[in-house]
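Please, structure for the following, as tokens.
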Amino acid sequence: MSESKQRVVVVSGGSKGLGFSICKALLAEGYRVATFSRKSTPALEAAIAASDGHLYWEPVDISDEAQLAAFLKHTREKLGRIGYLVNSAGMANEGLLTMMKAKDISRMIQVNLEGAIVLSQGCVKQMMVGGFGVIVNVSSVVGIRGFKGVAAYSATKAALDGFTRSLSKELGPAGIRVNSIAPGFMETEMTSELTEQQKARIVRQTPLSRLGMVDDVSSVVKFLLSDDSSFVTGQTIVVDGGLTV
């Protein structure tokens, strides 16, 4: 397969949870996937072993620009020129703002927002060479609708949606599309800390009467990366079972 036909995608934070689900879904679609996280997991190691060289991973701290640059260089060498990016790395520190430590706020901004911006910048340089590219930023419903105890986290996700809209206008003439996907509450490690009563309340407020699954989100990511959405850019697609309606 020529380089122009290869579909090389970078997925940040792909060692577990939603990021790992996205990696698996894109591998199944024939993408060559490069991902990174601070640590690997047994599930990721197994997926790499079974990928026939189509899944590449490095230990990278997304707040370290030098590490990100090296990762993108290695991805180009091992898989080919990057044409797709999914900014899925994220972290959340819950709690009232008045009680939150400044270092925790700073870290969330670094990971959820600055990291996505710097990684996008690096990938776009490769996309522009090919005259094509697609970026999907994973934001959150809390960036659209307020929830108690996640003010700083909400701010990073709302900013990511703003970044999406402006970048789509900037890169559209270069043939690069940029969209966001805003998941609702899902059955992941993030919600595993909720009590059964808290989960039940969320389910009652959701028209589809359940929490989301990672596959609900990864399927929309696949759509946004595909040619089926070739006229969709600058949008935030909400995947929350109707919670924010």
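The two ends are 44 Å apart (CA to CA). The helical segments are 17-28, 42-49, 65-78, 102-130, 151-171, 189-192, 196-205, 214-225.
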